[in-house]
């Protein structure tokens, strides 16, 4: 090892260390259970939000938060890694009748399973790949369509205001990619296609430098909620220099010392069945379940 050099920047994450959850309201908790738990094979958190007014769905170390209310829909898609696409497709086929009359749909694409939730949220479910390291269950991306010319300013916003690592690339339409955790990113893809109006859905992220971004957001009048000592929110993404509005998506910003950071999440083995039960295989174990 003596004299060997390494590219240390490959291990840099930036100030945003985790994209923890995506929050959308759902009008029916029973239908949500059929889709997220039975169909997708994810796990309802057994410790928090266990009533009928909200449901937290565990996906590795990430979550969906699903409070009861008028349905909310992300304008782009949410990318997930799941252990096995064939098993996923089988589960979704099995719940198809339960979701009749909704917007539910699923199809096997070239490298992912495309899934639409009963209220229109679009998911892309990927099999584990080297680009995500050892991850076999979790949230890896949230993609948001933005107007032409917005990507560069969005990248600068995350770099200069949030302290995140960001870049702009893409053949044809520019794409801003923002690192929001290990093997996680926000993707802002320029398009001329009309996008749905923002309806209040949000994402939650954890950051290490908590006060610096807050100060810069506050200077620009962007803090939308002073939640508590450990959390604040903002909705609008602007050019850090001109303050031109570029995109709206609410961020629930949590500090690294937040009591819930790194909380161990229960994940079940979705392949476990009564008729084929195997002792000791109830929990999800990466590479084994």
Tell me the series of helices and strands, N- to C-terminal: EHEEEEHEEEEHEEEEHEEE
- Percent strand equals 25-35%
- Please tell me the overall pLDDT: 95
Overall, the morphology is globular
Give the structural class.
alpha+beta
Number of strands: 16
User: CATH homologous superfamily?
Assistant: 2,3-Dihydroxybiphenyl 1,2-Dioxygenase, domain 1
Number of domains: 1
Treating each run of at least 4 consecutive H or I residues as one helix, how many helices? Answer: 4
Largest sheet: 8 strands, mixed
Account of the protein in words:
There is one protein chain. The strands form two sheets. This protein has an eight-stranded mixed β-sheet. 14% of the residues lie in helices and 31% in strands. It has a single domain, classed as 2,3-Dihydroxybiphenyl 1,2-Dioxygenase, domain 1 (Roll). With 289 residues, the chain is of the alpha+beta class. The longest helix has 11 residues.
Short description:
This protein is α+β, with helices and mostly antiparallel strands. It has helices at residues 29-39, 85-94, 151-160, 211-219; strands spanning 16-23, 43-44, 56-59, 62-65, 77-81, 105-108, 113-116, 122-126, 138-146, 166-169, 175-179, 185-190, 202-207, 223-228, 231-238, 245-255.
């Amino acid at each position: 090892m003596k004299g060997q050099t390494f590219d240390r920047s490959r291990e840099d994450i930036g100030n945003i260390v985790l994209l923890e959850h995506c929050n959308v309201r759902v009008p029916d908790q029973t239908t949500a259970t059929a889709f997220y738990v039975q169909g997708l094979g994810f796990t309802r958190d057994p410790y928090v939000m266990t009533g009928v007014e909200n449901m937290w769905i565990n996906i590795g170390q990430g979550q969906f938060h699903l409070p009861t209310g008028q349905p909310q829909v992300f304008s782009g898609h949410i990318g997930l890694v799941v252990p096995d696409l064939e098993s996923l497709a089988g589960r979704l086929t099995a719940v198809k009748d339960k979701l009749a009359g909704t917007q539910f749909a699923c199809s096997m694409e070239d490298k992912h399973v495309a899934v639409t939730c009963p209220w229109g949220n679009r998911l892309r479910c990927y099999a584990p790949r080297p680009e995500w390291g050892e991850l076999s269950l979790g949230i890896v991306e949230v993609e948001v369509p933005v107007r032409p010319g917005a990507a560069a300013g969005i990248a600068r916003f995350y770099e200069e205001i949030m302290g995140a690592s960001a870049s702009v690339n893409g053949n044809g339409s520019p794409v801003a990619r923002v690192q929001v955790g290990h093997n996680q990113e926000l993707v802002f893809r320029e398009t001329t296609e009309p996008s749905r109006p923002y309806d209040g859905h949000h994402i939650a992220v954890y950051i290490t430098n908590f006060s610096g971004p807050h100060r810069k957001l506050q200077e620009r009048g962007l803090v939308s909620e002073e939640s508590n000592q450990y959390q604040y929110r903002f909705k609008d993404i602007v050019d850090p220099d001109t303050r031109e509005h570029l995109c709206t998506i609410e961020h629930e910003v949590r500090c690294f010392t937040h009591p819930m950071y790194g909380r161990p999440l229960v994940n079940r083995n979705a392949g476990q069945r009564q008729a084929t039960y195997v002792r000791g295989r109830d929990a999800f174990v990466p590479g084994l379940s």
